[in-house]
Amino acid sequence: MYNEQEHAKVHSLRIKRRLVAIVPAVLVLAAALAIFIVGRIHRSEDAWKLTAALTVVGLSYLVFMLGVYVRPVACYDKHIGFMLHGRQHFTTGLLKEVGDNLCERGGVNCYPIMINVGDKDDGKDDRLFYFDALKEWPNIPLGSRITIQHNDIMVSDFRLEN
User: Mean pLDDT of all residues in the chain?
Assistant: First the structure.
């Protein structure tokens, strides 16, 4: 499901988004510093107000952009890294349920899937995994025997067993 080209693309997007967040904030903070220095040289009584306003604007922009614009891509980049290079486990069982409610795990939007690994379907041997919402889940009928490759609780690949 995941490949190195996708990982490189997401990593490149992460770097671009960081630059979009950091460069304007640094420019605004540099302008604030320059105004502060010029104000001190000229012994201005009001320069500190503009310096304070620019500092607040620059830092607010930086925090907002890092949280809203950069964080989702950074979490997905980290997720793909785990799926490609992390420790993988295999679990085989009967597909019991595929949820349709979107949830967030580790900053990645995903859908829950339930697999029963036991001999009886009594709910004691159910395992909950999460499937990346950006990937397409095939129409596998419930009750089918599947093997899931996973890192922790996130599905990295699956195959239908005969």
Answer: 94
- Amino acid residing at 135: K
Residue 39 sits at φ, ψ, to 5 deg, of -65, -40
pLDDT digits (tens, 9 = 90+) for 87-133: 999 999 999 999 999 999 999 999 999 999 987 777 788 999 999 99
Q: What DSSP character marks residue 138?
A: P
**38 vs 123: CA distance, rounded Å:** 71
Q: Which residues of the chain have pLDDT under 70?
A: none
User: What pLDDT was estimated at residue 62?
Assistant: 98
Q: Are 130 and 103 in contact (CB under 8 A)?
A: yes
Q: Phi then psi for 30, rounded to 5 degrees?
A: -65, -40
What are the angstrom distances between the C-alpha of 146 and each of 71, 85, 101?
Answer: 33, 22, 21
Contact 8, 52 (CB under 8 A): no
Checking 117-122 for CB contacts under 8 A at 24+ apart, the result is 117/91, 117/92, 117/93, 118/93, 121/94, 121/96
Whether 20 contacts 65, CB under 8 Å: yes
Q: How far is 47 from 49, CA to CA, in rounded Å?
A: 5
